[in-house]
Amino acid sequence: MTTVTPGMERVDALMPLIEAGRAGELADGIAALHREDLGMGFWFDGGPGERLRDAVTRAPAAFRVEVATRLLSRPDGERVAGTAAIITDDVTDAWTPEAAGAFLDEAARQWTYCHGRLSFILRCRLDAGHTLTPEQVAGVRRVALVGWRREVVLAPLVELLRSPLLNPGEPWADRILSEELDETWTALLEHTLTASGSKPSARWARTARTLMDQAGAEEARARLTGWLALVGGPRSLPMDGYEHHTDPHNAVALRGLIWLLGCLPAQPGTSRMLAALAESALRKVPHLGPRHPPTATSAIHALARLDGDDALGHLARLAVTVTHKPTMKVLGGVLDAKARALGVSRDEVAELGVPGYGLTEVGRLVRTVADATAELTVTAGKAALSWRNGRGRTVKSPPASVRSGHAEELAALKGVVKDVNKMLTAQCDRLDRMFLAQRSWTFATWRARHLDHPLLGTLARRLIWLVGGVPCLWAGGALRDLDGAQVRPAPVADVRLWHPIGRDPDEVLGWRHRLERHEITQPFKQAHREVYLLTEAERAAGGHSARFAGHVLRQHQLHALALARGWRHDLHMAVDGSFPPATRDLPGWGVRAEFWCGPDHRNGDWTPSGAYLHVVTGELRFYPPGAETHHDGFIDPRHSPPLPLTEIPPLVFSEIMRDADLFVGVASVGTDPTWQDGGPGGASRDYWTSYGFGPLSATARTRHDVLSRLLPRLTIADRCFLDDRFLHVRGDLRSYKIHLGSGNVLMSPVDAYLCIVPKIGSGAQVFLPFEGDQVLAVILSKAMMLASDTAIRDPSITAQLR
Prior knowledge:
Layout: H1 8-20, H2 23-34, H3 40-43, H4 48-57, H5 61-72, H6 81-87, H7 97-109, H8 118-127, H9 134-146, H10 154-159, H11 171-178, H12 183-192, H13 202-215, H14 217-228, H15 248-262, H16 268-281, E1 284-285, E2 289-290, H17 293-305, H18 309-321, H19 325-342, H20 346-352, E3 364-369, E4 372-379, E5 382-388, E6 394-395, H21 400-405, H22 407-432, H23 434-437, E7 441-442, H24 443-451, H25 457-460, E8 465-467, E9 470-475, E10 478-480, E11 494-497, H26 505-517, H27 536-541, E12 544-545, E13 552-554, H28 555-564, E14 582-586, E15 591-599, E16 614-623, E17 630-631, E18 634-635, H29 650-667, H30 685-693, H31 698-710, E19 720-722, E20 726-730, E21 735-739, E22 745-747, E23 752-754, H32 774-787, H33 795-801
Antiparallel strand pairs: 1-2, 3-4, 4-5, 5-6, 7-11, 8-9, 8-11, 9-10, 12-16, 13-16, 14-15, 15-16, 17-18, 19-20, 20-21, 21-22, 22-23
């Protein structure tokens, strides 16, 4: 009995069309077969599709070209491009200019184009004296640079395509192509296309400066900043799947333009733009990773060429915020070179590199613009700009005289606000990491670099410091101890950040009460910082802690958090045979922490690039630096055993456990209201319930402690009370329980789940004694909303309250 392969009968019906020379009908038939999922065996390994292609390949060259051209002219031409390439692979001289143009148009519509004879097609077009469209030129250039089957003979042909200088399709390149450039600017643009390597050579920079001198430095700055401001915008010529990619030909010119900007005299606006370019280039594209790291590297090297505190400040800020490993390495090398040039350590570069941004006192800048007064103030870690008009009245926006006659000064002030806010975020993270860095200063140095620094002072004056061994906080224009007495240390007294571990409990509670009484919001948890002590189970286990094992986490969120906290973490991929742990090196303490995670096969979904969406947490261990701990992603007993947890310094153990708690608290699917059904197949329903409403973690217990003192001050105090896990809220329609760990809500009468999806940035606008706990802010926001449940208008919520 003969087996009939799907599609075989239609293939047999198409065969006569080859001999009859009916190219159009044959192309329609081939395209129809491609629209069906007939499997790889249909098109290869002797299948009917391969038999059809072989038959077409034996036809005359002109007929094959006509079939291929008709295939590619279809709306779904990309689907059949492979077959079109195969049936014309050996054609060299039968291409008509029109057919060649059709192929080049197809190449222009794709990011890259797989055709083994593109060089012959291009030669046919050029020999016929036809000019390629800019889009065709762009398509051929991309094939020459990144095409899978690009040929050696294609490269010299591409060299003949001198116009346009840039490929169209990206806003910044389109702007340049639309402008009329004189000989000097044309020469400058051609010079950018020679920007090879990661940083400019001395010879390249000399030529660039000569050309920019001819163009004029200020004109060069204005043009370059105008062009570069458009980098990263949506493509003007969309290409499915490549909207965020930088054209490989344009990438060379972009690198050169960035280098040109770095060759100009330093200005705050120049440094700001270069730093913004680096950040934009490293912005993550879903399922693809950073948008274009080479652009970030170019911007960093350009920043390194600029003199002054402003450029150094942006480099220091990027060193704290960048998590892309290769870029981090580049930044490290640049900052090491700066440290050697200044004769200081890397840590000191991070401090010395924080600009004052023109602030005339800690957290304040006042500037007269026209007949108005601008005041920049930093309050609770955020900079804001306010205005007074000529009569001294506070106004909501810049007066008309400023907007119309002083636009540049206004833009500069807005730029300062933006820079200050970015720097505050970065420096807050840097200070938070100092507990494990064991950083200390003499009092005189610390006072100059932190306490009295016009920007860092806004952070330092809200933190508790050990000054000469005495815990103190800035208040009333002086450093004061817990009792309010002024502390007058010697200039050489030792200064370091105060940490609650190992301190007397009454002292810790005293600082917490003082912050809350005076409504001082710390830039991160310090007095209220969670302390993690060894449990009896961990003492008995010896070398590992399972305190945070068994949690289902969103892997990409875990990845971002781990990198931000100074951990090394590689995304676990479905194609990998090993799954190494997240690690954090602490060479100053002589240990390395490892937090083990593995793919969640119950929710076995992954991104198009193959990265698992979810992982399950395992044990946390400590090892000596350089110890071999695993083989093929599994703990190998033949390698170094973990260090006993009793030998880990309490501060190190507490801070590492705090990181693990943070990873779970932020990345757990238990905090996701859309997972109430347990995720794919309901596999995590029990976990979601146990995490979303179970016992509190150390972080959640801190929220309980804060709320116990904060609630009496709220307007809804008479409608709320706390138990061991929940904040209870009495509304007019229902009563509610908000879990202090997950923020999930249950409502009376039968503890039904109430799904409330918080909006980005949502949170109660009330005093909190520390920044950074978004869940606590959301809990308070939900409590205030539910206490007035009759005023809720969101239909997604009101439908659940009926």
